[in-house]
Specification:
Low-confidence stretches: 1-32, 192-199
Mean pLDDT: 82
CATH class of the largest domain: Alpha Beta
Strand order of the largest sheet: 8-6-7-3-2-9-10-1-11
Number of helices: 13
Structural class: alpha/beta
Number of domains: 2
CATH superfamily of the largest domain: Vaccinia Virus protein VP39
CATH architecture of the largest domain: 3-Layer(aba) Sandwich
Number of strands: 11
């Protein structure tokens, strides 16, 4: 896909380690972290009294560096088309967190293969299916796709009438045809992009002032969930312990409506970004420490940043060279933050 030679850039979030130190750490990782050594004595998650111990251990591990090899994550960024992921091996990705292009609503870069610029809605869905099919291929059995998407509100000024294209519903129907299971979605309440979708009247709503027939605001997006068939995974005890959620996180996150995550500003160089806290939450909900997360429509790299923050590996690609450049700069900037807990070493590779 790229004409120039592959280049690799490596950044370490902690102090540089020699090969000797790394080998020593591999051999004696439990000795360096007594909390991890304690894990073997308590890990029986189906026994009475074990869960409180594991939650307490998880809480303490949130403030320390994770043991080898989970203390190191790798992050690949590539200029590539989401409809052709043949450079990613089959069954190698544990989770996909992404937001596909909005059909004709957002102004993207003028790349010849840009999905968001396809005129006919059905053609747009057909091309999107190619990306979803390849996503299903690279997922491990039981892996999930988290798809953040909003319906497309076509303004009256465009075709003489206002109507909505149910993008979220069409994606769900087509995902089932691909062979993925549909799971309960989440409604994400965010600030509507009403300036793009319809013209307001200055009174805080759309339509004729104080008369019936007004336009209902499109201030929600859908977080769709899909699962690939196959047996459920068996992560290692340390992966399970490092990935546990607190009681409060379970209580507030496992609901069908989220209103506590604000939308992202478009001033960061992309017309439809989603916020890092949203990606972090999805990654922590549906993957384990050390897993690999893919974003085939990476934009400015939000999912990869969230993967760094949560101790997961990531693969990201976008068809637009501008967005790949912005995402790379963003990740390299992220590596400058010194980390004392979790995954402290980060390897960033641009391809």
């Amino acid at each position: 896909m790229r004409s120039q030679r592959q280049r690799k850039v490596v950044y370490d979030l902690a102090q540089p380690k020699t090969k000797l130190k790394l080998r020593h750490q591999q051999r004696h990782s439990d000795r360096f972290n007594p909390k991890v050594a304690e894990l073997g004595a308590v890990w029986k998650d189906n026994q009475r009294g074990t869960l409180p111990k594991l939650l307490k251990l998880n809480e303490s591990l949130r403030t320390t560096e994770w043991p080898y090899p989970l203390n190191t994550t790798t992050h690949r960024i590539r200029e590539a088309d989401a409809r052709n992921l043949d450079w990613i091996p089959s069954r190698s990705v544990h989770l996909i967190v992404t937001s596909p292009p909005y059909w004709t609503l957002k102004q993207y870069e003028t790349h010849a293969g840009q999905l968001g610029e396809i005129d006919l809605y059905e053609n747009f869905l057909d091309e999107l299916d190619k990306a979803w099919a390849d996503c299903a291929r690279v997922l491990v059995p039981g892996g999930r796709i988290c798809c953040v998407v909003g319906d497309v509100c076509v303004p009256r000024k465009r075709e003489g009438r206002h109507y909505v294209m149910p993008l979220h519903a069409d994606i769900q129907v087509r995902m089932r045809k691909i062979g993925l299971d549909c799971l309960t979605p989440i409604l994400w309440f965010k600030i509507a992009n009403g300036v793009t979708e319809a013209k307001g009247n200055g009174a805080g709503f759309y339509g004729k002032p104080y008369q019936p027939g007004a336009i209902i605001k499109n201030d929600v997006e859908y977080i769709l969930f899909f699962r690939k068939g196959g047996e459920y995974r068996s992560p290692t005890p340390i992966q399970k312990t490092l990935s546990m959620l607190s009681r409060e996180e379970m209580r507030s996150w496992l609901t069908s409506a989220w209103s506590d995550v604000k939308g992202e500003s478009t001033r960061k160089g992309h017309p439809a970004p989603f916020p890092v806290p949203l990606a972090e939450r999805l990654i922590r909900l549906f993957s384990f420490a050390g897993d690999t997360v893919l974003d085939p429509f990476c934009g400015t790299g939000t999912t990869s940043v969230a993967a760094i923050n949560t101790g997961r590996n990531s693969i990201a690609c976008d068809i637009e060279p501008k967005y790949v450049s912005l995402a790379t700069e963003r990740l390299l900037k992220e590596t400058k933050h010194k980390r004392t807990h979790g995954a402290t070493t980060c390897i960033v590779t641009t391809e």
